[in-house]
Amino acid sequence: MSARVEQRALPGIGVVQDVVTKCGRRIGVLTHRDGHRELVVYDVDDPDAASETVPLTGDEANAIAELLGAPQLVRHLAEMQEQVIGVLTEQLPILKGSAFAGRPLGDTQARTRTGASIVAVLRQGEVIASPGPSFVFEAGDSMVVVGTREGVDGVASILRGDV
Q1: Cα 107 from Cα 76, distance rounded (Å)
Q2: Which Pfam families does the record cross-reference, listed alphabetically (predicted)?
Q3: Which residues contact 97 (CB under 8 A, 6 or more apart)?
Q4: Among 156, 148, 39, 50, which residue's Cα sits nearest to residue 98?
């Protein structure tokens, strides 16, 4: 069962997205109209009052997103993999000096050539879900690939320049 995220507009302030944890604590992220964010921990006795707020810089918000988002995406895909026999999820890096660093995803022709799909790219703490063919890889990116063993191995071969 997945957690339910509630989103509320705060007129003149911004938007807050909250989730209630399994143990009953409510936490959220407040995104102000000017773009800065705060992590909000709500009071146990008064769920409408914040007991703690933590202002976040853009880099800090991205770091927390990486800590929570990227591993969760990969974990979720791995759980799906267990449910679908024959389907794998792996992270494949774009190494420095790779022929695909600085080139668009479409140049790999990965799906056409292997049947495997690049479902996300992890870049400097950010998850880029469902990148399109014009998405340009950078050295240090990790792509999340879903497919059969042969398909995932095929994408790895393409990245190495074997084929």
Answers
A1: 28
A2: KhtT_N, TrkA_C
A3: 139
A4: 156
Which overall architecture, per CATH, does domain 69-160 show? 2-Layer Sandwich (3.30)
Asked if residue 116 lies in contact with residue 146, where contact means CB atoms within 8 angstroms, the answer is: yes
- Neighbouring C-beta atoms of residue 42, cutoff 10 Å: 19
**E strand or H helix at 9, and its extent?**
strand 5-10
Dihedrals phi, psi of 53, to nearest 5 degrees? -130, 140
Which pair of tokens denotes residue 117? 């799909």
In the chain, where does the domain assigned CATH 3.30.70.1450 lie? Answer: 69-160
- Within 10 A of 108 (CB to CB), how many other CB atoms are there? 20
Residues 6 or more apart whose Cβ sits within 8 Å of residue 117: 110, 111, 145, 146, 147
28-82 pLDDT, tens digit per residue, is: 888 887 778 888 998 888 877 888 999 988 777 767 766 665 555 555 555 555 5
Output the six-digit token pair for 89.
């999820």
* pLDDT tens profile 109-136: 999 999 999 988 988 878 888 888 999 9
Q: Is-above-0.85 flag for pTM?
A: no
